[in-house]
Amino acid sequence: MVTFCIALACLVLGYFIYGSFVERVFGISPDRKTPCYTRPDGTDYIPMPTWKV
User: Fold this and answer.
1) Cβ distance 46 to 36 under 8 Å?
2) What is the pLDDT along the chain (53 residues), one digit of tens a residue?
3) Which residue, 31, 28, 29, is CA-closest to 19?
C-alpha cells in the first residue's frame, strides 16, 4: 500500500511539473484554432458542442 501511495504521489507531482514544462516550451495561445476548425472534413474533424466536452 505504501508503494501505491508513493507511485500515486509521483504521478500527480509529475503531472504538474510536466504540465508547466510543456506550457513554457510550447506556450498556450487562446486564439489558436484546433484542427476541427482549420481543416473540417465532416468525418474525423467535427466540432463538438461544449456541453459534450
Assistant:
1) yes
2) 999 999 999 999 999 999 999 999 988 888 888 888 999 888 888 888 888 77
3) 28
Grid cell, residue 2, equals 505504501
Break the chain into its structural domains and give their ranges. Answer: 2-28
Instruction: Supply 48's cell numbers.
Output: 463538438
Contact between 30 and 36 under an 8 Å Cβ cutoff? The reply is no
As a whole number of angstroms, the distance between CA 27 and CA 46 comes to 25
For the CA atoms of 51, 47, 25, 23, what is the dihedral angle to 10 degrees? 0
Q: What is the DSSP string of 22-47?
A: HHHHH---TTPPPHHHHS--SSS--P
